[in-house]
Amino acid sequence: MSRSRLVGRLGAQARVTVVSAPAGSGKTVLLRSWIGQAGVAGSAAWVPAGRGERDPPRFWLSLLAALRQTDAGSALVRDLTAAPDLDGWVITERLLADLAPLEDRVWLVVDDAHELGPDALRQLELLILRAPPELRFVLATRHDVRLGLHRLRLEGELAEIREPDLRFTVAEARELFAAAGVDLPEVAPLVERTEGWAAGLRLAALSLAGHPDPGRLAADFSGTERTVAEYLLAEVLDRQDEPVRRLLLRTSILERVNGELAGLLTGDSGGERLLADLEAANAFVVALDPGRSWFRYHHLFADLLQLQLRRTEPDQVAGLHRAVARWFAGHGYPVQAIRHAQAALDWDLAARLLADYWPGLYLDGQAAVIHELLGGFPAGARAADAELAAVAAGDELARGSLEAAGQYLALAERASVPEGRAGQAQLLLGMVRLLLARQRGDPAAVAEEARRLQALAEAPEAAQAGLGDELRALALISLGSIEFWVARFEEAGRYLDHGVALARRIGRPYLEFTGLVYAAVIEFWRSFALAVERGRQAAELAERHGWTDEPGAGLASLIVGGVLVWQGQLEEAEPWMQRAERTLRAEAEPASALIIRAHRGLLELARGRDVDALAAFQAADQLAGRLAEPNLMVLTNRSFLVHALVRLGETQRAEQALAGLADQDRDGGVMRISLAALRLAQDDPHAAIAAVAPVLDGSAPVRWPGWLAQAFLLEAIARDALGNPLAAASSLEHALDVAEPDGVLTMFLLHPVPGLLERHARQRTAHAALVADILSLLAGRRSAPPPAGPPLPLEPLSDSELRVLRYLPTNLSGPEIAAELYVSHNTVRTHISHLYAKLGTHTRAEAVARARALGLLAPSPLPGQATRAG
Description:
By secondary structure, the chain is mainly alpha-helical. Helices cover about 65% and strands about 5% of the residues. It has a five-stranded parallel β-sheet with strand order 2-3-4-1-5, with helices on both faces. Strand 3 (about 105-110), helix 6 (about 120-130) and strand 4 (about 135-140) form a beta-alpha-beta unit. The longest helix is centred in the middle third of the chain and has 19 residues, at about 420-440. It is globular, with a radius of gyration of 33 Å. It starts with a helix and ends in a 17-residue tail after the last helix.
């Protein structure tokens, strides 16, 4: 129907329009009519925030998809794939950044906004407060939601259409009945009794259609919402013939239904035709796809149908769920299959299905879904079932608890396995053992479990599940990762190349992503260019599939950040380091956490923040104790730690740190380089030269060319101190030879010798441009003003601090921010104080600018697009 008196109000100039009224008031129909009549279809993004969108990530995925359907949004809004552990706050910031250049009017229409949970509402409020001017909002809701819209009302930027506005007039009701084919002599009494409630009038029209005495029936039409619901059952459902009624009741257990499922549950044919007829008749059935093959019921109608099913066929409900579970399992819908088996209380079937499908779900990066499904079992079930215990061990690994994972794995290994399930149980146990060994950094265990898993890949259970190649790829990637940690780079590279290629061929992007991450780590030690290429490939996969919070994504970010650190691009490295630190899970991934901590320390050391660098190296060193076996980063980090002590003048502590090492470690190449730095600090250039001599002659080799460049640089400094300029120039030229291919400049920041470099530049050198770059880098650091405060913390900002940070760009005062977050003003003041300290700032504006520079907040809108953001 055309309700022109309301359509015009929707096109007003207010930034936000709220349509607020009870259920069935015609909100959705009105908004769809407005889009069609006002000619804004190409600039309107429709987002249905139904019950399935209470989870913030699902809501934001729907919102992004809708914006991408608009003319302007298609060019600005980046796509995002559904995945576990998506962060609604991060998505909001990313969307603000995407929309900052918006110049054309776009309407964002959110239907059923009352279904959004508290987090999604706060995130939506943030979007409203900081959106560019050309983005307008239309919100349909059954009741007012907490969005802080009172401020917009005071500023004249809020338009409201409420329940009295939506009430049907007599003329509109007459038009409604005429469209339904109902000839009702007197409409006004019915309008009065229903108070113009659109759903009530529509229900009345449905019941009056075809009735021999519509006037009499209309006179009896009255009641509360409960009466209307009863009426829906008695006068709509009961008026259907038996096949339709049976179909509606039995298929009401489904979130979505098609003809085949309808036939399965009713035993009748023609289900798709009946559903299509009901949808065409607007009988509370909605088509979900253009082909009209999948349908759903109106939520209220579905609730009532389910209630009626339980009343009329209580003994059939479990069997219906069980039949549906088997259908979904056979048609490749494992998650729905397991949920219906749980609804049937058939715990054995649910457990077997989860055990069968867990490998595929894990290899697709579906950790959050697995966790949710495990939560659907009764308390104690996972400990009493061998296969569920194995799945629980994998779930604990994904959530970061190695200890709990080990306990469940032990339970799974001790528990009995039902007849015929031994092969599947061994497959589960093999995968979990391998993943646990990999996260513990245990090379011997990884090698053994990978060998077993490759044998399991040939077993009938793997072939039946179509997982043979997947298990091989997982084994290869795991072997490659562990070979890296023990510095067997060539072997690691071969395993990873094969594993990544296999994962790509069989279409397992999560496995490909994992392999690319480790390939990037390996290339870091061989070629910066290849390391960055692999790291960016992994980061792109993570972004595409929503795995940006995975530890692997952190390692991929670290590789790019680490390359930038070693190349002396310190400010450019900071955002990448921040991304890596956000994924830090020291308990679950001690090896990865160690390398992230160590590179944070190196970045701070290169900045001249030696105290913070030392703290980072010490934190990394503590993580070494959690490894099953030491890896190559343990000594590398201890070498950094000694450097930090030397820079702080703590030469005695540096001596003690070196003395505490085993002889073999102390005599290794990286520790000899640290010893040389210590001896130079002690004014003993002869001892420094002696320390690095085995590194330079190859008897104490180093595995990365950057270390060799540093050894040559320290020898050059020592030769120069001894008054031997020719030997110093030769050593310096060798250092430059090694440093130039990858642009490794940071050791020249760690050991600054501008005078020596300037003299070298005046002599004949093959690296004049590189020397100029180094001198420029040193000059920039010397001339740079001191930092405004302490550096960013070793720990990421807390969740509470991040929530407060996201409100700082707005014009909200401290008490207003407190009200939005439901905390006290003192709590907000404390968080802001911590933010200033951690960001090294003193004012709100400085904190916002610093956070934007680090990628913690979206950039400000383009000039001329000022918003309420500060």
